[in-house]
Amino acid sequence: MKASELRAKDVAGLQKEVADLLKAHFGLRMQKATQQLTNHTTLGNTRRDIARAKTILAEKKKGAAK
Fold first, then answer.
1. DSSP string of 4-63?
2. CB-based contacts of 52: which residues, under 8 Å, 6+ apart?
3. Which residue among 13, 31, 49, 63 has its CA within the 20 to 30 Å range from the CA of 40?
4. pTM of the model as a whole
5. Measured between alpha carbons, how far is 27 from 41 in angstroms, rounded to an integer?
6. Are the CB atoms for 52 and 3 separated by under 8 Å?
7. pLDDT by residue (tens digit) across 38-56?
8. φ, ψ (nearest 5 deg) of residue 50
9. Which residues contact 27 (CB under 8 A, 6 or more apart)?
10. How does residue 13 score in pLDDT terms, banded at 50, 70 and 90?
């Protein structure tokens, strides 16, 4: 997911997005552990998406606090 798409969401939407990404990442990790994962790059991409969403969420929370 692109950062511009994430910036368009509100704080509640970002929190839901982070929760969904964490759930997807867990599923991918379980697939890797059971050797069912064929495309290992999705694991890294999901991890980066989580970090991107958490960063934008922190920026929005910091901006709302001011």
1. HHHHTS-HHHHHHHHHHHHHHHHHHHHHHHTT----THHHHHHHHHHHHHHHHHHHHHHH
2. 1, 3, 6
3. 13
4. 0.90
5. 14
6. yes
7. 999 999 999 999 999 999 9
8. -65, -45
9. none
10. very high
